[in-house]
Every structure is written in structure tokens, then in C-alpha cells.
Prior knowledge:
hpI Integrase, Chain A, 9% strand, mainly alpha
Amino acid sequence: MSIYKRGKFYWYRFVFDGKLIRESTKQGNDKVARQMEAAHRTALAKGEVGIREKKPAPTLKEFLQSEFLPYAKTAHAMKPGTLRYYQQGSDMLKQSKIVGLAIDQITDQNARHFEAEYSELSPSGINRGLRTLRRALNLAYQWARIEKPVRIKLAKGERQRDRVLTDDELSEYLNVCPQPWKDCATIIAEEGMRPGEVFALQWQHILLNEHGGLIRIADGKSKAARRVLPMTPNVFALLAKRSDAAGRPVDGYVFPSKSAEGHFTGNVAKDQHARALESCGVTPFVPYILRHTALTNLAKKGADAHTLARIAGHSSIVITMRYVHPQADAIERVFAMAHGKIKQKRLRGNARQKHAEVGTKVGTLEKSTEKLSVAARDENASRAAQTLEISGAGRGSRTPKVLSTGGF
């Protein structure tokens, strides 16, 4: 029997009468899956059932309309930005030439044709459609609509958010930011949180005490995004001030607004960000650079990649490496430390070896001295024995008489 797990469910695969049989058991228990495979084999052998014809896969257009977009509306109901991203990507795919293909026929080659169709757009614009396509095909595989996963590569040349603001740039920028974006930007720049996470902060997830506080991110892009962060002094000060001004609430949004979401949103933030850039001399940058700056600064201060991933809420350390930019002096320090440790080990090893050699020499000297002492005692004893002579008893006496051969 041949069963394997794909996602949550087990599948079975075998060959009968020269044809490949592959079906999902829709079961998460391997024993039940094996029983279902055995039952299918038996039924085929007895002729009770024929080989089941595989249902044709839907076209990309059909899958987007009937399955992907309804799923996105439900899964991302609380994340309008993500939902809007996938809706725009779906519109791009529906207007492309690959929309009529069955989803089990789409390959990365078709993705390259899609890229060529939208070549007038920037790589970021093209990747909006490609990311949507990749997500849709991944879901199709999870839902057993296609048998094999499809790897879709993104367009090259997309601009990375790798700029890091200096302390002076950040200070000049924050000084001209209007509220509430100023407080939001401060939290992003010091805590390294995502903008959307800051906008949706609620008081029940904020812990304030006399000396500091904690921020709990209860909702995020993944399980890793749900985390707890300590507040920096500046963040603690501004949140405490906001809490006092609002009457120290125990629930509700930290940055409330009259928007449909009920809190401060990215669209308003972009407008206030643009006004702040016009009022200062800082070279323009996108708001996400504030998060990148925070994470990069933490890395410079000694945070390792694994710790930084926990702080950033990344599910993969590969993503975190974008924020780690080791400078030449940092690399030199690492090599110097490594060389210093090696040198210290060598010195300690040489010292131990010399100590052992000295100890061996001392031990050998002590043994030699001991042997000389023993030899000297033996020689003295021999000489003493030679100076003594035991004579027989005089005049028939049985008592021996010891005489000195040297005479006295």
C-alpha cells in the first residue's frame, strides 16, 4: 500500500490494470486511509467499481471567481489591504491570456508570458499578479484541485526596502509629522512593528505599569506574527499619555477613527506621511522604511537573526536576513574575536604543556633524589656491616662477642 499526506489529508496511489489510481481519502488518520485504499483495491479487483474518471480542472478564471476570491474575502475580512491586493491581482489575471487555461496546465512558463504581457509595469506591479497567481495555485493544491504544486517565480528587479534612516533624519521627520501618524511612526521606528499592526492596536493588548509596559500583537499574517514586545521609553511615554487622555480605557482601538475599520488606516497615514516629507528636508521614503530601520538598528546592536525574527514576527529566518546588513567593521570584529579566542586557546595550551613538562621534570628530579637517598642509605648500611665482626664464644662460652676490627 502507498499512502502519503498532502496538507491535512492522506492520499493513496497505486497502479491497477496499467493505470495510475490516485485519490484523496479526505481523512487525517493514516489507518483509516489505508483501509480506504484497501477497499478501493478490492472493489476494483472484484469488478464492483470501474476506474473513476478524473474530474476536469477548472480554468483559472473559474477558479478565481468561484473559489479563490470568496476565500480571500472571508480569510482577509479584517485586512482590507491584503484583500484589495488579491482583488487587484485577480483583475490583472482575468485580463491576461492565461485566464482560459485549466489550472492543472499552468506552469512557470505561463507566468513568464504573463510577465511579458505587463512589461510596461514596474516589477512590483507585475508581481502583484504573480503573487496572486502563486497563492491561488497553492490553495488549489491544498484543496486537491491539482495534483502537483506549481512553483511560480516573481519578476526580478523589484525595489527592496533596504534604506536605513539616520538618527538625524528620523528626528527631523518625526518632528513635523501630524498626529496620529506621528505616534504610529514612532512605534514603528522603535518597536519594529508592521504599520498595519500599529493601526489596529487595542487597549486590551497594552500593558502599562509605573516603569514600562508590553505590547501584545494578537493578530498577524502568520502564527509567528502573534508576539509580545517590551516598550521602549518613548513608546511607553506616548501610550501612557494617550491612555490618560482617553480616560485609561480597558478596550477599544488605541488610534480610533471614523473609517469603516474603526481605526486609523494606511490611506490616511500615506497622506500624513507625504505632508511630513514636504515639510522637512529628508529624502522621500516609503513608510515601511521605518520598520526596516528599527530592525536593522536592533541587528547592529547585537540582536542575532533568530531573536530578530521573533521581534519582527517572521515565520522564516530568510526574510529576517534582509534586515541584517553587516558592515566591514562588524565583520572585522567577528574575525578579530575568533582569532583572539584561537590565540588565547593556543596560549593556554602552550602554558599547560609547559606546566606539564616542568611537572614531569620535577617529578623525575624527585624520583632521582629519592633513588640517590636510598642508594646512599644502602651503602652506609653496607659499610657499617663491614666494620662489624662477630667472633665465636671465648673459653667455651656460648655468648658471642662483638669486636671492632678497627680497634679502640
